[in-house]
């Protein structure tokens, strides 16, 4: 039987160290993958002159599944976001960000289990209509929500809830003010929800959703929303469980998916062997779920839970003093 090939982008800053940790864990869990390593971000720019070389795009297209470390897009130099480019290139319309409480972190809550499903290709992040007046006094951008795009992400969220036995989907919007874009999204949400009568549907305005997530996050199960709101809310959710170092992300399309650490490249600690690899390891678990290897994903998550709860071999952001490699070795031993 031919090995399943995975495209791996180690990324910038702390990316190589945490991605290498995730690959070591996957190998030790007996996943049996073969890896095609390609470049992206500043590393690729320095080596090839491009942020996203054609070789990288070809490898993602060929293997249909990729594991990605954090990539840096240069600010203010005319470069478009690498992550947005990848999502649009491969029509990765669903951004899935689960957060779950782990004993042993510095989180303020103990029983969080929320999945944020964010539309990934439309809305304010589409890049359409961005202009700045010649005198630099007026800037404009265009937000576009299509019925097809809304139906696709809403159906994805309700199907996810159904598949995972979730009890409730919260549709987050701003239809009271953004009557065109958010209004269309909310109307489509009501149509889709009618097909899932066994799942409770709650509608919530985005500013209230932010407040409710801080005050009573246990009420949330699955959240589905548009691109900009989803970006903000998913980071807020990460803060409920200890920060971005504990939050993985999946970008899923019809026939292709990219799994990633959702935090930045943290160049200030690059090369110091102190970064927490949990985010990208949990992203690798999402990848295993996607590939119908949930048994191995469960074992890795269980080992993570054990190591973090003990606290003896955790990284600084989790209150410990272990290095990235020591944390990874403890995880492998727990496996």
Automatic annotation (TrEMBL):
| The protein's name in its UniProt record | Isocitrate dehydrogenase (NAD+)
GO molecular function terms noted in the UniProt entry: isocitrate dehydrogenase (NAD+) activity; magnesium ion binding; NAD binding
User: Is this entry keyworded Acyltransferase?
Assistant: no
> Which SMART domains did the record assign?
Iso_dh (SM01329)
Q: Does the keyword Oxidoreductase apply?
A: yes
This chain's source organism reads Chromatocurvus halotolerans
Residue intervals of the Isopropylmalate dehydrogenase-like domain:
5-331
Query: What biological-process terms (Gene Ontology) are attached?
Result: isocitrate metabolic process; tricarboxylic acid cycle
Domain of life here?
Bacteria
Q: Which InterPro entries match?
A: IsoCit/isopropylmalate_DH_CS, IsoPropMal-DH-like_dom
A Pfam entry, by short name: Iso_dh
Family from the record: Belongs to the isocitrate and isopropylmalate dehydrogenases family.
What keywords are annotated for this sequence in UniProt? Oxidoreductase
Matching NCBIfam families, A to Z?
A: PRK08997.1
């Amino acid at each position: 039987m031919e090995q399943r090939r995975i495209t791996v982008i180690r990324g910038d800053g702390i990316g190589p160290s945490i991605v290498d940790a995730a690959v070591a864990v996957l190998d030790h869990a007996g996943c049996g993958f073969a890896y095609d390593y390609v470049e992206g971000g500043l590393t690729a720019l320095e080596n090839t002159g491009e942020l996203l070389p054609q070789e990288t795009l070809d490898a993602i297209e060929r293997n249909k599944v990729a594991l990605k470390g954090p990539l840096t897009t240069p600010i203010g130099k005319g470069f478009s976001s690498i992550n947005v480019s990848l999502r649009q290139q491969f029509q990765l319309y669903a951004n899935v960000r689960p957060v779950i409480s782990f004993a042993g972190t510095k989180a303020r809550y103990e029983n969080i289990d929320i999945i944020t499903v964010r539309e990934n290709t439309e809305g304010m992040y589409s890049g359409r209509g961005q202009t700045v007046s010649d005198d630099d006094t007026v800037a404009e951008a265009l937000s576009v929500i299509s019925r097809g795009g809304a139906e696709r992400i809403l159906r994805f969220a309700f199907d996810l809830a159904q598949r995972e036995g979730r009890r409730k989907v919260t549709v987050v919007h701003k239809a009271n003010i953004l009557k065109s874009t958010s209004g269309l999204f909310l109307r489509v949400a009501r149509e889709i929800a009618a097909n899932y009568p066994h799942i409770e549907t709650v509608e919530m305005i985005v500013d209230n959703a932010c407040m409710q997530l801080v005050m009573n996050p246990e009420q949330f199960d699955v959240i589905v929303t548009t691109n900009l709101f989803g970006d903000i809310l998913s980071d807020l959710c990460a803060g409920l469980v200890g920060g971005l170092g504990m939050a993985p992300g999946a970008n899923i399309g019809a026939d292709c998916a990219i799994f990633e650490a959702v935090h930045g490249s943290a160049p200030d600690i690059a090369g110091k062997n102190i970064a927490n690899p949990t985010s990208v390891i949990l992203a690798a678990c999402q990848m295993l779920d996607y590939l119908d290897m949930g048994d191995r994903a469960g074992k890795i998550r269980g080992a993570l839970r054990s190591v973090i709860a003990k606290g003896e071999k955790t990284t600084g952001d989790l209150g410990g003093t272990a290095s990235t490699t020591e944390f990874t070795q403890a995880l492998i031993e727990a496996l």
